[in-house]
Specification:
Layout: H1 2-33, H2 36-53, H3 59-84, H4 95-115, H5 127-153, H6 159-170, H7 172-191
Helix pairs in contact: 1-3, 1-7, 2-3, 2-7, 3-4, 3-5, 4-5, 5-6, 6-7
Length: 200
């Protein structure tokens, strides 16, 4: 009987890992092949709802605001995580550092929304970690921007090479119409097996 239980647990863990991997793989494919107008509608809807609920003072609205912000930031996070998988060989970036910055931004925003009425003012020594929070926000933008250019050019880009893409991600209502077609081309290259990236 213990052997049967152990076997079932191992099988459950195996299928759970497979399900999680398949889900993320599907999300990756969706992010790269979805059209610019679909991403625009998604981000615009999240942004509009977020601005609306920020004006309502209640616990429920705080939770909704945090959820919407996670969805909004989630696009940048998922984009960075997806592009990282298709980096050309011999080009390295720190995904862990990027995800740490993302977690810090989400945690800071959640704390600001729930504890400080949507605003945190860093003064004195607190300004030091405050500066890193500001950097972490920029990190969410330049990481996927740099990865996209690296995949396109097959070399590690300098700041001047991906600065334009960074600005497009920052001003997404306009930039998404230029960035998403480039992601579509990356997806097409993956499907035609013309990208040089580590297969695992």
């Amino acid at each position: 009987m213990p052997h049967i239980i152990s076997f079932n647990q191992k099988q459950a863990q195996k299928w759970t890992c497979f399900f999680v991997y398949s889900t993320f793989q599907s999300m990756d494919n969706w992010l790269l092949k979805v059209k610019h107008w679909q991403i625009f509608l998604f981000l615009a809807t999240v942004y509009y709802l977020n601005q609306h609920y920020l004006r309502i003072d209640s616990l429920a609205s705080c939770c909704i605001t945090i959820t919407l912000m996670v969805l909004y930031l989630g696009w940048y996070i998922l984009l960075g995580n997806t592009l990282y998988q298709y980096l050309p060989r011999k080009i390295s970036y720190s995904l862990i550092w990027f995800l740490t910055s993302a977690l810090l931004v989400i945690a800071t925003f959640a704390a600001a929304t729930m504890l400080f009425d949507g605003q945190i003012i860093f003064t004195g020594l607190a300004a030091i970690p405050g500066l890193y929070v500001f950097f972490a926000v920029i990190h969410l933008l330049w990481f996927p921007a740099a990865l996209l250019v690296a995949i396109e050019t097959k070399e590690k880009p300098g700041f001047s090479q991906y600065a334009g893409t960074l600005l497009q991600l920052l001003f997404w209502p306009i930039g998404i119409w230029f960035v998403q077609p480039r992601l579509n081309r990356v997806y097409n290259a993956i499907q035609s097996d013309t990208l040089d990236y580590p297969r695992s």
